[in-house]
Write a structure and sequence with these properties.
Elements: H1 3-14, E1 20-31, E2 41-57, E3 62-67, E4 72-77, H2 89-101, E5 109-115, H3 125-143, H4 167-182, H5 189-196, E6 201-206, E7 212-216, E8 221-227, H6 235-252, H7 263-269, H8 275-299, H9 303-319, H10 326-336, E9 341-347, E10 354-360, H11 364-379, E11 384-388, E12 395-398
Parallel strand pairs: 3-5
Antiparallel strand pairs: 1-2, 1-12, 2-5, 2-6, 3-4, 6-7, 8-10, 8-11, 9-10
Helix pairs in contact: 2-3, 2-4, 3-4, 3-5, 4-5, 6-8, 8-9, 10-11
The structure holds alpha-D-galactopyranose.
């Protein structure tokens, strides 16, 4: 599906040409897993797969979105937003409510939506849908001179306007929609990178201050995404359980969050901690340090060190945080045995979903072929494997005739 096909679909559906395009990407996380809700550090990058809406503002408060992925249309009024209709529509409804609660005056729109971020694979199709919809509201309100998005720091193909509404605020409101309306208790990472990603860069985010730094992707290596195609069982309840275990750990250390616990403090209290809580804390404390080390390695183009840190992160998520799966472990083990692979790890929440492999460019095709060949023997499943590149965060622009 390219943009002109999507525009044609809009014309067919709504009988006129759309006037704006709004989009937001999915993500992979290079390192820093299960640290965001502990006020810690993360290092994701936006990928070259996104959710796009083409649309036209309306003069009333109705929102009509047709999803090409689901071949379904949803319609709701901004004056009365309910958690109703198809599940994919809850992201749009949720961000509309969050924007309005924050005091923004929204305009309705008609849009056709399409996404090529794989759904429910751990690449943040939900965050991409939320941010793309916020961009569609921004585009609509912009045409009505009510709400504009400040987009100045980004390397984006979309038009840039001045306003008090920042991309950081967009990310926070999207997270609020996901937490309060959709009902998923995620941290800020996915929405933040979908909003603020940049071409050729990963983004180091301090999830406490929401300060961030663009980190150039080192030359010479490819990130392969390997979708295990295994269902993500228990993801929601186990995720919440991990959060609770971390909160329990922070209380035992008498700290606001695990972000504040040093290695020395951890070692002093370690023998007294319940084993599970001790393991969760150890992961978070060391993973935060690995993010800082990974940023340092990337800045000097040290792919070997970056790969080692990624592999250590995977081992910690597998053994201490216990959020990996046999499929994710199989991908990582197969990849790490191959020539040219610097490191590999699961990415995102875990319990299924995707792994990423950092591999020298010249070996990427062979490594992808090897995983495609070996993985089914270990798991009985066929993986989806593709390279991804660091891409621009959310944005919107006008469509001219
Ligand atoms: C999911 C959540 C994020 C983060 C990761 C784990 O992707 O949405 O907020 O917690 O899991 O790092």
């Amino acid at each position: 599906m390219n943009i002109s096909q999507q525009i044609d679909a809009f014309k067919q559906h709504f009988g006129a040409a759309p006037t704006f395009v709004a989009r937001a990407p999915g993500r992979v996380n290079l390192i820093g897993e299960h640290t965001d809700y502990n006020d810690g550090f993360v290092l994701p990058m936006a990928i070259d797969r996104d959710v796009t809406l083409v649309g036209t503002p309306r003069s009333d408060a109705q929102v009509r979105i047709h999803s090409l992925n689901f071949n379904q249309t949803t319609e709701f009024s901004l004056a009365d937003i309910q958690k109703a209709g198809p599940e994919w529509s809850h992201y749009g409804r949720g961000v509309a409510l969050a924007l309005q609660k924050a005091g923004y005056h929204l305009t309705g729109f008609d849009a056709v939506m399409y996404g090529n971020v794989p759904i429910a694979s751990g690449l943040s199709s939900s965050a991409a849908t939320e941010l793309a919809t916020i961009m569609a509201f921004s585009a609509s309100a912009d045409e009505n001179e009510k709400l504009k998005i400040e987009n100045a720091e980004k390397n984006s193909a979309f038009s840039i306007l001045n306003s008090k509404f920042s991309l950081v605020e967009a990310a926070k409101l999207a997270q609020q929609a996901e937490n309060q309306f959709v009902g998923v208790n995620c941290g800020i990472m996915d929405q933040f990178i979908s909003a603020l990603g940049a071409v050729g860069h990963a983004l180091m985010i301090d999830c406490r201050s929401l300060g961030y730094e663009l980190v150039p992707m080192p030359q010479g290596a490819t990130i392969l995404v390997v979708d295990t195609t295994a269902p993500r069982t228990l993801a929601g309840s186990a995720y919440n359980q991990r959060r609770a275990e971390c909160e329990a750990g922070a209380i035992l250390f008498n700290k606001a969050s695990l972000r504040d616990v040093t290695m020395t403090e951890f070692k002093a209290l370690q023998p007294k901690l319940p084993t599970i809580v001790m393991h969760r804390c150890a992961h978070v404390i060391m993973e935060n340090q690995r993010v800082l080390d990974a940023v340092a390695a990337m800045k000097v183009g040290d792919l070997e060190q970056l790969g080692i840190l990624m592999s250590q992160s995977h081992e910690s998520l597998r053994d201490l945080y216990e959020v990996s799966s046999k499929e994710l472990d199989a991908v990582v083990d197969i990849a790490r045995a191959e020539v040219g692979v610097y490191g590999a790890r699961m990415t995102g929440a875990g319990f299924g979903g995707c792994a990423i492999v950092l591999v020298a460019n010249e070996h990427a095709a062979a490594v992808a072929a090897k995983i495609a060949d070996e993985y089914p023997h270990h798991t009985g499943r066929t993986p989806n494997i593709y390279p991804c590149v660091a891409s621009a965060g959310a944005g919107f622009g006008k469509l001219s005739e």
